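User: quick one
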Amino acid sequence: MQLIVNGLIAGSLAALMAGGLALVYGVLGIFNLALGQLALIGGYGTWWLHASGIPLFPSLIGGMAIGAIFTWLTFEIAVAPFYRRDARIPLVTTIAWSMILDAAILLTLEERPRSILPGGKHFLPFDAVRISVEQIVLIGCTLIFVCVVAWVLHSTPFGRKIRATVQHPDAARSLGISSSLLHRIVFIVSGVLAACGGIYIGIDQNLTPTLAFPVTIKAYAALIAGGKDNFWGTILAAYIIAMLEQLAVGTPWWFGNYVSAGYQSIVALLFIIVVLLIKPTGLFSHRARAA
Amino acid sequence: MKRSLALLSLTALALTACQPAGGGTIKIGYIGPLTGDAASYGVDTLNGVKMKIEEINAAGGINGRQIEIVAEDGKCTGSEAASAAQKLVNVDKVIAIVGGQCSGETLAAAPIAEEGKVVIVSPVSSSPDVTKAGDYVFRDYPSDALKTKAMAKYFAEEKITKVAMISENTDFASAFRASLKENLPADAVVFDEVVEPGTKDFRTLMTRLKNVKFDTFFPNAQSDATMAAMMQQFRDQGMKQPAISHDIADSVTLAKLAPEAVEGMWVINVPTSGQGTSFETDFTAKYGAAQATIAFAAHAYDAAGVIAEALKAGATDGTAIKDWLYNMKEYKGVVGAFSFDRNGDVVGVPYGLKQFQKGVIRQVKGISVD
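Assistant: Done. Structure below.
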């Protein structure tokens, strides 16, 4: 039971990041590898606002807003000039941009780790399953946020416009849908998802300037395993991988022996390899649907 | 006119380059983690070195020559530290190096310094492996081999027989783990897991730990960010056992990140040298409060200090500095009066048992190791 809770806590973070990555890939067809840095900026932004005396809730909104602004900058600088020419160019430009952001984060923020809500959380009074009110809120908000994004994408007129630009950009334009505006909106929403991921790290663990890239890689893994073109699939895969990582070290596998914690991520990667061997398009990929 | 000016400045440049070794500045290298998770140690130690060198330069330098610091980022990894050492030894031609800080840095830089006959004095590396790293390798920070003995002694005194340990897979933490296990009875470590560097999610390990009978928890992390996550998640699971750790826990940042979780936690480390002395006042006035601990700055200050002493005594190359350091009777520094043994390990720096009390780290008593 505790293992499932642990998996949900880790999985929610992974889902936010993977969701951000999947959204941009699904609609724009590119990978934003500066996503981890945008998460950090969102997290640090919230920490900074909260540490300078602003109450938690406005700080959270502010952190997401700061994340959104930087995401928009990212789009204008590293993506917009290139992505129509070749979807592979942003792969390089976003990496370059992520390095610039990394350096900027190092210069402006000190090296020491930061926590948005330092100290003890409010734990529910059960001994069998330890979970705090804060964690429940984080898990809940993640689910709601991710579901809202998916719902908008799949079930609203706005979402239909987005999907139209994906399926046939020229036809969509001839019907009066501005794809460049839509792309900007989608990109910024993905950045806000990432910023939420950063805030999640800042509340649940602590922020250090170097954790951006590993976070991006995990999201990338979930995207590949879940099927590149399926938003829901990516989210599910993120949860599954997180759950597997917890189960891998949390349950005895043979004669009461546990997998050593150092091999935690290897188990998840093995899972991805096996999935791709059996179903190269990813777990939840179905060809007809895009975005 | 322009051309002749350019020519003139070129000649001037060439002339300064050809200056005999007697004049000009003396270069001392520095290697430490200036970026990355361990950067707070790098910032503190580099400031410690700067402070010493500025004092010497203000007082007229070494026999009239000023000292210049060439600082390189080791990023707490062996590969970065190795290229930093290559540059310092072969390009900058420094006469001595203060560094590395992380044990991995020092171990990687040591063979290069040895090859180039450049003395390297580490302020905070504590891995037992540094003892045998080479003739030119010194440190004014005691080896973990001693610290784990001190810890084992404490466990025996407090009748702690079951230790639960989670270690980060880095040079320092792994060496500490091995060395501690050597000094404890065979079955003393009842829970022993090693995680990848930088891991922040220990919840499942803590869930498992809950079903293990143990007396004390030993979070063996490489950085305070990881240590804070370990302690927080340990307490989150409702476990009440005491916790004890090493140098890394001796950081005020921990009390800021996880105040309730680290309250009452024990730390065995060298005394917080410099704390409450004029050294701390001067240091804080110049560089602000230490990011990790003032003791790191103090050890770095003294590491630069012994090198300067050797230079003042007339040493002009690495070999002379090395010989002078081995024969040094006693250096009265901020960390205490110390000398070096035949392995370049420090003699004369004791240990203290400290505790987090209301968010502040206080020394409870001294621990002697003989």
